[in-house]
Amino acid sequence: MKYGIAIFPSKKLQDKVNSLRKRYDPHYALIPPHITLKTPFEIEDSKISDVIEQIKAVAKETEPIHIKVDKVSSFKPVNNVVYLKIEPKDVLTALHERLEEKCDVEDTAEYSFVPHITIGQQLSDEEHNDVLGSLKLQDFEHEELVDRFQLLYQLDNGSWTVYETFHLGKEN
Asked: Where in the sequence is the active site (predicted)?
């Protein structure tokens, strides 16, 4: 089965992002707005309980994270993805690296880890430039405390659903 690990931001931020994604992201119906912590990976069902224990250990040693969204950016020229930039990058990168190190799974990450929430993807060059230009004029100031992340699995129709939620911090 295919799994992934992601943070789902607050409903307030998801609603704002979804108002844009429904126009610009063909994956809109497959998964809510999220910050990918670990790219999709395949694992046998018999091994998932071991991976869950490894993820729990990472969650327990990670304090809740204050995140900030302050601007729209793009991965162009690598690909025509428009996204909300997430700060602080270092804290999220450290969490990503701990998950990579502690979880005994192979993944096929094509790109370096960049914390973000996708707004649009698979855009033509012209669409990309238009969307990026218009969104850069909008205010995306948002801050929140993230205290959990989710292990997801992919259904047969390509959509993703939560398998288990992990709370950050020693008390959780």
From this structure: 34 (proton donor), 116 (proton acceptor)
